[in-house]
From TrEMBL:
Domain Carbohydrate kinase PfkB: 1-300
Record bears the keyword Transmembrane helix: no
InterPro entries, sorted: Carboh/pur_kinase_PfkB_CS (IPR002173), PfkB_Carbo_kinase (IPR050306), PfkB_dom (IPR011611), Ribokinase-like (IPR029056)
Native source species: Lactonifactor longoviformis DSM 17459
Family: Belongs to the carbohydrate kinase PfkB family.
Descriptive protein name: 5-dehydro-2-deoxygluconokinase
GO terms for MF: kinase activity
UniProt keywords, alphabetically: Kinase, Transferase
Entry keyword Transcription regulation: no
């Protein structure tokens, strides 16, 4: 059985090969993108096991996603193929400054119809960690209910619950996102906010205040991402800063936060102290920006160990 179980939507991504507005794009790369499967794949590459719970359309895009995720070594036996709803897709528009803008087509997708009966409690209880993101509850009322059900069941069964707020205001309104995120915090043993999420949720980018607010809502450990500077971990009354790793050539930040979470959870699974978990998170996150795509750029454990020891640079 997998050590880490994830729950969430994965879509097919059409990535424009040219910069500028999509109306002028002629050619696209097609790959997959989903916060939870990104973290799952990254963990498998780091020599841990992961499983994924979700729904996909019983269509060609659904087959592509399931085959890809399974091919990376993630267990997909809990993924339901739906004959009545399609697989979600999105398009990425390349901007001149190297950033991107996403256009989602996920309303009514198979994943948005997830309900609590999708969760096999025996399967869930077999894991050590449940990892979810704030994207899933924003898909629909049913998906929100399913996310909370899974988090509550995992917590009751003694699993660690890992939660990346991952606010996406294109899927729900800020006030609803704020209310739901804060409510779900009570189930979370580990939370991975960024400063931008702190600003949206609490009106502050101060890491100390972000952590204080989340802990007040019930979160256990809070790890605040502060970009190239690294991250700060908060646990009980302990505060730990970890300096970021420098990527010589940043190509694509797509999936960097998901990789960061995988690095931290890797340390947790190995019984490491917070300082080591934070360093692993920073290192995996740095590696992830060196190639286009998301899962395509995640390092093997051997690559990561060599990078962290200074034997190789992160300039692929």
């Amino acid at each position: 059985m997998p050590e880490v179980i994830t729950l969430g939507e994965t879509m097919v991504v059409f990535d424009s090969l040219s910069k500028g507005k999509l109306r002028y794009s002629q050619n696209y790369e097609c790959h997959i993108g989903g916060a939870e499967t990104n973290t799952a794949v990254a963990l498998v590459k780091l020599n841990h096991s992961a499983g994924w719970i979700s729904k996909l359309g019983n269509d060609e895009f659904g087959a592509k996603i399931k085959n890809t995720v399974a091919g990376e070594g993630v267990e997909v036996c809990q993924v339901l193929m739906d004959d009545n709803a399609p697989t979600g897709i999105f398009f990425r528009q390349r901007l001149e400054n190297g950033e991107s803008r996403n256009f989602y087509y996920r309303k009514g997708s198979a994943a948005s119809t997830m309900t609590p009966d999708l969760i096999d409690l025996n399967y869930l209880k077999s894991g050590k960690i449940l990892h979810v993101s704030g994207i899933t509850p924003g898909l629909s009322e049913e998906a929100e209910e399913t996310t909370e059900y899974a988090m509550a069941a995992a917590k009751e069964s003694g699993l660690l619950v890992s939660f990346d707020p991952n606010l996406r205001l294109k899927v729900w309104r800020l006030e609803q996102a704020r209310r739901t995120t804060n409510r779900l915090m009570k189930y979370a043993d580990i939370v991975f906010p960024g400063r931008e999420e702190g600003r949206l949720l609490y009106g502050t980018e101060d890491p100390d205040e972000i952590a204080r607010q989340m802990m007040a809502y019930g979160a256990g450990t809070v790890v605040v991402k502060i970009g190239e500077q690294g991250c700060i971990g908060y646990e009980n009354k302990k505060k730990c800063y970890s300096k970021g790793f420098r990527a010589e050539r940043a190509v694509d930040t797509f999936g960097a936060g998901d990789a960061f979470a995988a690095g931290y959870l890797c340390g947790v699974l190995e019984g490491a102290e917070m300082e080591t978990c934070l360093a692993l998170a920073n290192a995996v996150g740095a590696f992830s920006v060196t190639l286009k795509g998301n899962i395509e750029s995640y390092p093997s454990r051997e690559e990561l160990d060599a990078f962290m020891s200074g034997k190789v640079s992160c300039n692929r």
